[in-house]
Every structure is written in structure tokens, then in C-alpha cells.
Amino acid sequence: MTSTQPQAQSLTEGNPDQAIIRLESITKVYGAGETEVRALDGVDLVVNPGEYCSIMGASGSGKSTMMNMIGCLDRPTSGQYFLDGVDVAQLSDTELALVRNRKLGFVFQQFHLLSQVSALENVMLPMVYANVPVKERRERGKAALERVGLGDRIHNKPTQLSGGQQQRVAIARAIVNEPVLLLADEPTGALDTKTTNEILDIFSTLNASGMTVVMVTHEPEVARTTQRVVWFRDGQVVHAHLDPEELHTTAF
Asked: Residue 161: CA atoms inside 13 Å, Cβ hemisphere, count?
């Protein structure tokens, strides 16, 4: 006899014996007939706990679609996606929202902070949706900001912070719910070189503490700070385990 109750429980618990990301024959098709576009075409990919991967490829290669898929922001046309041991490909919208809140942290090129509230209040937002008690929200929010070096700026609003500091707030917000996976989409694209290096140091430190990180980037210098590169072309993975140091020698 089969019960659906264990599956509901597994949405937040997952399975520690499985990979953080396991994609099996994932396709994403837009349009039909002559207008059909296969943004993803039979993608297989595994990311294990504690890895730090970058996703690269030319414009239109499928890397942004892949990030949306991994982040449960889009659904595959076919195939299976296991996130922390949970098959999320066919979940309802409500269940996907729960997965995004509990299991995933997002960092984007644009910081997406609320300008009228403090850094601490921005960081506390994901915990509101997770129904975390107010006192615990504040404690965890402060700890997350301290973790990214902004313990002395918790009351500052985004307009009172530099671009690099705003991205630190965004990272703190992304990690405050202790996600199993941190996703970063061109997180240094709006930053200067010095600030970029500082932000990349934070990602490396988070990874060194055990956090699994996947980053989309078009910059080889950024990708070289990760452990491996996944290279996309025409909706397919053409290199799943490219050594970042080989970026300048490999023909794509």
C-alpha cells in the first residue's frame, strides 16, 4: 500500500544519501513545429554535496534556462530533476515555493533589495515566509550579516550601502535559511574588480564551510575560482567536469 504522506515530508527533509542535484534527460522546449526551440536538450548532470561549480556557455547556450530549472523557477518539458533526493520536476506551485524557500538560496547580478528597509530586515524576509519566530529571525539575520562582514551595518538601508555591501546583504539573505544549495547568477556582473574579488572570497569561504554552490558566469576569471566548470552549447552539456584552469586551452 502506498501513502503520499512520506513524499510531502520529504519536500523539506530530502535524502542525505543522494546528490544535491541530479538531472536526468532534462529537456525544455518552447514553441512547436518550425518555431520549436530546444533550450535544453537531454541534459544529464550531477552535483554532489559540497561542490562549487560554475556554469558557462555562449549566449543562447541554455545556461540561464538551466539555472532557472535548478532553481525550481521553471519546469522541464520532460525528464526528472532530483533536488536533495526529492523529485521536484512534477511538484505543484505551492510545493515548489516551499522547496525554494527551504532548500535554495539565490544571489543575482541585481541585488533585489527592498530600498526602504534595513539590511537586517531584508535578510529576515525569507524567514518570514518560513514562519520563523521573530526573535529567532533577528538572531539568525544578524549572524548571517556578520558572516558576510556586515555585522556593523545591520541598520543601514540599501541606499546607504555600496554595491559590494548590497551584494553582501543579498548573500546573507540567501544563506539565512541554511539552504542545501546556493545559486548565483552573474553575482559580480555589476561590480568592479576589487569588489568582485571580495565577493568571490565570500563564496569560496561559504563553500569551504560545506555549502554547495552553483554559479552562472560568462567570465573565465570568475569561473577559475570554482572547482569545476559545466559548459553548455546548444542546450546540451558538452563538458561536465572541465578543470577551470583549462578554460584558456580548450576549444569550444
From this structure: 26
In this prediction, residues 196-223 reach a mean pLDDT of 95
Check pLDDT > 60 for residue 41. yes
Residues 43/56, Cβ–Cβ less than 8 Å: no
Spatial separation of the C-alpha atoms in residues 155 and 108, rounded to whole Å: 22
Q: State the helix-helix crossing angle for 93-103 and 5-13, rounded to 10 degrees.
A: 30
- 61 burial via Cβ count (<10 Å: 0-12, 13-18, 19+): buried
Sign of CA dihedral 156, 160, 165, 171: positive
Dihedral over alpha carbons 62, 225, 153, 117 (to 10 degrees): 0
List of residues 6+ apart from 205 with CB closer than 8 A: none
Number of H helices, E strands in the chain: 8, 10
Identify the burial level of 137 via C-beta atoms within 10 angstroms of its C-beta, where 0-12 means exposed, 13-18 middle and 19 or more buried.
buried
Domains of the chain: 18-241 (3.40.50.300)
| Residue 139, CB-side half-sphere exposure with 13 Å CA sphere | 5
**Selection from 78, 54, 75 nearest residue 65 by Cα:** 75
Rounded Cα distance, 247 and 252, in Å = 9
**CB distance 39 to 65 below 8 Å:** yes
Q: How far is CA 228 from the centre of its chain?
A: 16
- What is the Cβ-side half-sphere exposure of residue 87, based on CA atoms within 13 angstroms? 8
- Residue 17 confidence (pLDDT): 53
**pLDDT exceeds cutoff 80 at 31:** yes
